[in-house]
């Protein structure tokens, strides 16, 4: 049994940027998954067929920004102590998904200023100095008695400031309002990215805990197998066991040694996944300091959780602002048929040179009335209608998806809690069975086949218990994410603080 690491299927809520991110799924044999792998594919980009068949898409996973981080700090030769709170705090600062989400907000702010610029005054200056020569006869057909037809060369200087201001342009007004809704949407998306980062970091931290428990369990099983091998050897020396019993015990010991090697390797690789996601310096070693034993979670009622999620989920608020922006774009498209009023003026100095110039001024109020624009406005309206319909449909789909995610989380929470109880009991029974089998073998009542089988049963039960505890804790943080409180209440949900 082995949990999935960074290059295996990663759990994320399907909400980042239309979808972010990476939770390593711990999936032992006969252990129900605490989430829907098809929803996972929407975020990681893993093809549905690959998810359903258990295949891995390494390229899509490596491109997921929530698997990466921007390294910060200096490499220390001493392993650092890393608590769950520390890991989440680092991830919120250094995870690549969060960094990119912040850049998206900056981009939306730039678009906001671009839209506002259509409503704000524009002031520019223009200064020029030139030399002119004119043939008035050739250019204008003029003949001046007593004067040559060529005038010049003579200098010409002009310096002025131009001022333009839109007094009324309903299209620009609506576009500016739409850009404000887009900025709010980007801000909510950035907040949602932080929720996803917490989901990624907590899940990967839990994965490290599970892998560490695997190492401890494998070590214990190896030590037990070593003791049983020594016992079988002593029994053979005493004439109470056969050579095949010793051989069987040695094979079992080698099997447990192999499992321990795999468990240690998996733990080391999972630590690399977590270190990268939180932005630790490359090569930095660490030791986790937070342990998460079984802690029952008392959740609110299902209906209360669903209603609170619509208010707390940042992705839902982001999509609502997308709908609002699309509505305003539709109004802006219709307003292209409306007249607009503007003011234009300029003031400057003109003359043959800067020292010999005089002031000039022009001022005008302009009224622009669209008469016929070749169907462009109609085309803009059609596109705006399509965009608005699309955003409204996405909002309704997200509403239904949130409802489903919360219901799934509640089902997973209940199922995995029961599973932890069953698997804990199974470990106790398997332990007792192994002890009794060893006593029977020592007494010569049976050979060590029964002992080997009892060892295997205990190993399977231990693995299943570790997996069930991981699944239960993932179900808790998934519920926090589904209700939109992962960042603010992850410690309460996972550790019971």
TrEMBL record:
Signal peptide stretch: 1-24
Protein's UniProt keywords contain Secreted: no
Keywords: Cell outer membrane, Coiled coil, Membrane, Signal, Transmembrane, Transmembrane beta strand, Transport
Coiled coil: 381-408
InterPro entries tied to this protein: OMP_efflux, TolC-like
GO cellular component: cell outer membrane; efflux pump complex
Gene Ontology molecular functions: efflux transmembrane transporter activity; porin activity
Location of this chain's protein in the cell: Cell outer membrane
Pfam families, per the entry: OEP (PF02321)
Family stated for the protein in its record: Belongs to the outer membrane factor (OMF) (TC 1.B.17) family.
Name of the protein in its database record: TolC family protein
Annotated source species: Alloacidobacterium dinghuense
């Amino acid at each position: 049994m082995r949990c999935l690491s960074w290059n295996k299927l990663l759990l994320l809520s399907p909400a980042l940027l239309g979808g972010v991110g990476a939770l390593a799924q711990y999936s032992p044999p006969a252990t129900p998954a605490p989430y829907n792998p098809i929803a996972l594919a929407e975020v990681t980009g893993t093809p549905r067929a690959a998810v359903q068949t258990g295949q891995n898409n390494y390229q899509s996973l490596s491109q997921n920004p929530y698997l990466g981080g921007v390294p910060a700090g200096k490499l220390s030769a001493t392993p650092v102590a890393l608590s769950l709170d520390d890991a989440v705090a680092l991830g919120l600062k250094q995870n690549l998904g969060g960094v990119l989400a912040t850049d998206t907000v900056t981009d939306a702010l730039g678009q906001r200023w671009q839209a506002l610029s259509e409503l704000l005054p524009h002031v520019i200056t223009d200064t020029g100095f030139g030399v002119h020569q004119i043939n008035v006869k050739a250019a204008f057909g003029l003949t001046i008695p007593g004067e040559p037809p060529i005038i010049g060369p003579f200098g010409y200087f002009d310096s002025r400031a131009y001022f333009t201001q839109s007094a009324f342009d309903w299209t620009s007004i609506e576009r500016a309002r739409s850009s404000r809704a887009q900025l709010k949407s980007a801000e909510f998306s950035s907040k949602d990215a932080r929720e996803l980062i917490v989901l990624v970091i907590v899940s990967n931290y839990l994965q490290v805990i599970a892998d560490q428990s695997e190492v401890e369990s494998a070590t214990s099983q190896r030590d037990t197998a070593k003791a049983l091998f020594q016992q079988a050897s002593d029994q053979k020396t005493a004439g109470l066991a056969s050579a095949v019993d010793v051989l069987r015990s040695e094979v079992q010991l080698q099997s447990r040694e192999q499992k321990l090697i795999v468990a240690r390797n998996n733990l080391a690789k999972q630590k690399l996944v977590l270190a990268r996601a939180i932005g630790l310096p490359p090569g930095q070693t660490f030791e986790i300091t937070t342990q998460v034993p079984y802690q029952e979670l008392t959740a609110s009622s299902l209906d209360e959780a669903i209603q609170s999620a619509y208010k707390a989920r940042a992705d839902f608020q982001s999509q609502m602002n997308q709908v609002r922006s699309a509505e305003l774009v539709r109004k802006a498209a219709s307003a292209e048929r409306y007249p607009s009023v503007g003011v234009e003026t300029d003031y400057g100095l003109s003359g043959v040179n800067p020292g010999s110039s005089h002031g000039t001024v022009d001022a005008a109020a302009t009224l622009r009335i669209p008469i016929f624009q070749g169907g462009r406005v109609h085309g803009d309206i059609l596109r705006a209608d399509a965009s608005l319909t699309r955003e409204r449909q996405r909002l309704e789909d997200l509403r239904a998806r949130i409802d489903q995610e919360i219901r799934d989380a509640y089902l997973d929470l209940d199922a995995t809690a029961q599973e932890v109880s069953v698997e804990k009991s199974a470990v106790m029974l398997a332990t007792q069975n192994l002890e009794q089998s060893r006593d029977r073998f020592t007494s010569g009542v049976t050979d060590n086949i029964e002992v080997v089988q009892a060892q295997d049963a205990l190993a399977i039960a231990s693995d299943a218990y570790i997996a069930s505890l991981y699944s239960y804790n993932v179900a808790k943080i998934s519920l926090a994410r589904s209700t939109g409180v992962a960042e603010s209440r992850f410690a309460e949900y996972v550790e019971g603080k």
